[in-house]
Known about the structure:
Chain A is mainly β. Chain A is built from 4 helices and 14 strands.
Amino acid sequence: MIDFETRETAGARSGERVRPMAMIATRIMPLASLAVVSAAHAQDSGRLLATEGVTQIEGAGGGGIVPWALITGYGTRDAVGANVHYSLVPLPDFTLNSAGAAVGLYDRLEFSYAHQWLDTGQAGARLGLGAGYQFQLDIVGAKLRVFGDAVYDQDSWLPQVAVGTQYKSNDQANTLHAIGAASNHGVDFYVAATKLFLAQSLLVDVTVRATQANQFGLLGFGGDRKNSYSLETEGSAAYLLSEHVAVGAEFRTSPSNLSFAGEGTAYDAFATWFVNKNLSATAGVTALGSIARQKHQTGGYLSVQTGF
Amino acid sequence: MPRSRFGRLIRGLAIACLTAAAPLLAGTPARAADTLYADLGGAPGIDAIVDRAFVLILADDRIKDDFDNINLDRLRGRIKSQICELAGGPCHYPGRPMQAAHDGLDITQAKFNALAEDLRTAMAQQAIGYHTQNRLIALLAPMERAIVTK
C-alpha cells in the first residue's frame, strides 16, 4: 500500500479545504455573465422541447455520462442558450458532485465549465488519505457542431456531428503522483454523432473520445501502466415516452492506465422530466464498476438543470 | 441485493436498452408510413387538426403576424392536402414547392418551430397520441431547409 501520509502536503488536510460552492461561484460567474449579456441580444428558446438533451457529468450538452453532438440550450441558429446544472452521483463508497454552467451560441458552438468534487468518505480513510478526503476537478469544455441537424434531417440517416474538447485539472497533484498518475491535468478530444429518429421517438448517440483520463480525470491522467492517449467509445439511446419524459441508457469505456486501480466500463440508465424549456430533472442509476480499488460502485444519478 | 448483483443488473439493463434501439429502428418505419393517415383520423381527422392548429397559430404572438395578408382558407386547404399526401392518404398537394411558396418571407427557425409546437398542441387536443404526433412532425421537419431562409 502506498503511504500517502508521507507524500501528501499538509494543506489539503489541515482545514483549508477548498469550498466547492465558492469555487464554482467564482468560475461560473464569467460564463453566466456572458450568457446574460448574449441573451439580452438574442434569446429565443426557439428549439423544440427536449432537443437540447441535458448536461452530462462533465458539463457538456449530452446525456448523463456521454457528450452528444447537440449544442446546449434552446437557442436556434439565430440565438444563444445557456443553463446551469447540479448533478449528484451517490455511490456505496464515494459521492460525486458536479456543478457548472454552459452556453450555446447560435446552435453551433458550446462552451461549458463544470466543477466536480469526489468525496471519498470512509474509503478515504481505508486508502490512507483521511476520511472525507476530496478530489476536485475543474473542466472547461468547448464543442463545435460540424455538420448535420439531428432534428431536421429526418429524411436521411445523416447524424448531427460535433467535435469537442474538455480540459480537466485535478487539485490533488501530490496524491495523484503517489498512486502512479502521470499528470494532474489533461485534455480529452471527442467526436460525437447524434441522430434523432423522430418517427420512432428514439435518440441515438455514438461518441468516440481520445483520452488519458483515469476515472474521468478524478484519479488524474496517464499512469504507470499506460501514459498515452486511448480511443474510447461511448453510446446513448433514449426513448421519448412523451413530450416531457425520456428514458435512456448509456455506456462509456475507459482506459486502465493505473496499476494501482483497474478501471472498466461505466453504465447508466436514466429518466428525464423536461418540465419546460427552463427546467429539467433527471434521475437514474449508474454502475461505475471499481473506483480506486473500491469494487462495485453502483449507485444513483440525480441531476437538475435550469436555463433557456 | 448484493452490490455486485445490482451492478450487473444496471449493466444488463443498459445493454438491453441500447440493443433494443436497433430493432425498434429497423422495424417501425414501413408500418408507420402505411398507417399514419389512418392514425391521424383520415381526412376528417386531418381537417380538424389543421383547423385547430390555425386557431392556435393565429393566437400565437410569435407567429400570428406572419399570416397577415394571406388567404387563410386557401392556405388551410393546401396544408390539409399536403399533410394528407405526406401521411399516405389519397390526396395531392396542389401548391407550389415549399421553397418557392416561402421565398422572401424571412421565416426563422424559431418561427418554424413555433408552428410545429402549435401543430403538436392541436394534435394533442384532437386526442392524437404523442408517438403519432412525432411521426407526422418527422415528415414535416425536413421542410425546414426549404422554408427557413433567414
